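To: structure subgroup
Subject: Chain for Friday's discussion

All,

I'm putting the inputs and outputs inline so they're searchable in the archive.
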Amino acid sequence: MVSYQSRRSRAVVVSLLAVLAATILVNCRPDVPREGWDATWGPLVPHQTFPGDCGICHVPDRWDVLREDFSFDHEKETGYRLEGAHAEAVCLRCHNDRGPVTAYVARGCGGCHPDPHASSLGLDCQRCHDERTWEPTGLIAEHARTRFPLYGTHAVTPCENCHPGAPAGQFRGAPIECELCHQADLARATSPDHLANGWTSDCQRCHTTTLWASAIIPHDAFPLVGGHGGLDCTQCHTSGTFEAIPSDCYTCHQADYEGAPDHVAQSFSLNCEQCHSFVAWIPATYNHTTFPLTGGHTGLSCTQCHTGGTFEAIPSDCYSCHSADYAGAPDHAALAFPQDCEQCHTTSAWTPATFTHTFPLIGSHNLSCTECHTAGSTSSFSCIDCHAHEQGETDNDHDEVGGYSYNSQACYTCHPDGRN
C-alpha cells in the first residue's frame, strides 16, 4: 500500500501541475485583459477560433505587440477588402465581443460608425464621406443644388458657421440674406457708416463673396473712372451722408480752378471738361475746333497766339500771326506775293514751300522761279512770251496744223513737255 505521505506528495505534484496548466490557459484566454490594452477600445476579441500558436501573431514577451513580420491578407482570408483608413485601423476596432463582424458590415457605415446626423441626411454616408477620412467632401457640388450655391469665402467656411445644428445633422432653415449672417460685420462698418446711411440690406450691391473689404460701389450716376477711381467716398461726400451731390467738376474742384494759372484772370469756362480729363488735371488739352492745331501749331503754348492776354477768338488767317515771317522771306514783299500763305506753305513747316503752278512745270520747264520771272513779276504769261519766233518761220513750221496760234494751250497740244 502506498503510504499517506506518498499520496500526499503525489497530490501536491498534481496540484502544482494543475496550477501550471491553469496559468498557461489563462495567459492564452481572451477574456483576461492583456497588459497595455486600452480599455476605451472595448473588451478583447475572443480568440476561440484562432490558432493555438500565439507566436504566429505576437512577440514572445509582449501580448500587446504584434510581430514585425506579421502579415494578414484581409481580402484573401475574409473576402472583405480594407481600403483607406480601414487599412490602418487596429483589428480590435472591428473584431471585438460586440458580436459577429459580418452583422455590422451588412449594415453599412452605420454598423460601426454612430450617425451624428440622427438619420436626418439618410443612410448613404458615402455621399459626403469616404474611407480616407471622415472630413466631408463634395459639399460644394451638394450645395449647388440648393438655393444658396457656395462661392468665394463661403466655399471654405465651416458648415457650423451658418448651420449651428450641423453636428446633429440639422441643415435646414439657414437664411440666405447676407445681413442675417453678417450682423457683426454690419456693426463694424463705420467708414462709411452703414447703419447711419440705412445700408442694412442688399449687401451684394457693393460686396462680393470674395472679400468684404473690397466693396465696389455701383456709382451709375457718376462713373468712377480715371482719377476718381481710387478716391475714398468721404473725399466727395464731405457732409457725412451719401445723398446725391452735384456732378459738375467745378463744385468739387473750385480750389483747383482758382489755383490754376490765368483761369480766374481770363475768366476761363467753368466747364472743366473742355480742357481736362478724368485721368489727370494735367496735361490739359483744348479742343481747338475753330482752328485745328496741326503740324507746327500742336506744340505751341496758348499765349504764343493769344498775345493780348485774353483767350477770345483771334483771326485765323496765317498772315495775322506770321506777318514777320512773310516780311523776312525772300522776295515775298518785293514781288507782292499773296498773303494767303497756304498757297505755298503747310502747317507742318514753312520750308520747303510748294506752289501749285497754273502753268505746268514739266520737262524743260522745271526751273527756278527767277529763270522765267526775270522782271520780278509774278504775273502769268504765255509760251510766246518766252519762246518768240519769227512770224514767217512759225507759219512755215505750222502749215500742216492749220496755222499758228499765240495760245499756250495750243502749243502744249503738240509740245506737252515744252520741247520741240
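Points worth raising on Friday:
Residues 288-350 form one domain.
The CA atoms of residues 184 and 255 lie 40 Å apart.

D.
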